[in-house]
Amino acid sequence: MRFLLIEDNELLANAVTERLSLDGHIIDHANDLSTAWDYTATSSYDMILLDIMLPDGDGRKFLEQHRMGKSRTPIIVLTARSEVSDRVGILDLGADDYMIKPIDFSELEARCRAVLRRRAGAARNTMSFGDIEFDALAGTLKINDNEIKLRTKELRLLEIFVNAPQQIFAKSHLLNRLFPFDVEASENAIEVYVGRLRKHLGDSNVSITTVRGLGYKLECV
């Protein structure tokens, strides 16, 4: 998944980036609101982690304007403010959750998973489609009781498809979701990972179909 981290504390930002990167996520870091708006104008995100006190403004204004723009991207606010009124205000502005600093990274990961599950309408980390079961936390794909351990990029790519079956994803969009800006990767890389997933799905009734001129979609066959 691709995260946007809006945080001006470099030590915290580096720690969060390092932790989430271990699970294969892509993290774009903005240390102010101006940079954050530039990122959201050019990329789509699965999750935004938002600090409140930023060098060029209040993160709550970003939250409010982001929601006014009809964006449904989940947002978790990272704040040093512990007063109930502050937390209520953050949630009323449209935040999906919040965390009080200092942050426990295991809790942050769990809260991210919980928010994403709620958005997908799921109660567990395991998602089903057709005759497959996919566990993004364990990194496994189960087909007819046969469990397959996925590599990181395979895992993140299948996660994108399973979260939106039947939706067509352009190669350029998938490239943006799987690789950071500073990594040179071509659309051929997407073809390679799609090919690997197709092999894993060979014994299931689920297929990644090529939609000529548009991209790929996950469907039951």
Give the key terms:
2 domains, 8 helices, Rossmann fold, alpha/beta, 221 residues, 41% helix, Arc Repressor Mutant, subunit A, four-stranded antiparallel sheet, five-stranded parallel sheet
Short summary of the structure?
The chain has 221 residues and is an alpha/beta fold.
Helix residue percentage: 40-55%
What is the average of the pLDDT values?
Answer: 90
Radius of gyration: 18 Å
With strands numbered from the N-terminus, the spatial order across the biggest sheet is 2-1-3-6-7
CATH topology of the largest domain: Rossmann fold
End-to-end gap:
26 Å
Total beta strands: 13
Written as H for each helix and E for each strand, in order along the chain, the element string is EHEHEEEHEHEHEEEEHHHEE
The helix-and-strand class reads alpha/beta
- Residue runs with pLDDT of under 50 for 5 or more positions: none
CATH homologous group name of the largest domain: Response regulator
How many discrete structural domains?
2
Number of helices: 8
Largest sheet: 5 strands, parallel
Question: What does this protein look like?
Answer:
This protein is of the alpha/beta class. It folds into two domains: 119 residues, 3-Layer(aba) Sandwich (Rossmann fold); 95 residues, Winged helix-like DNA-binding domain superfamily/Winged helix DNA-binding domain (Arc Repressor Mutant, subunit A), CATH 1.10.10.10. The strands form four sheets. A five-stranded parallel β-sheet has the order 2-1-3-6-7, with helices on both faces. Helix 1 links the parallel strand 1 and strand 2. The longest helix has 16 residues.
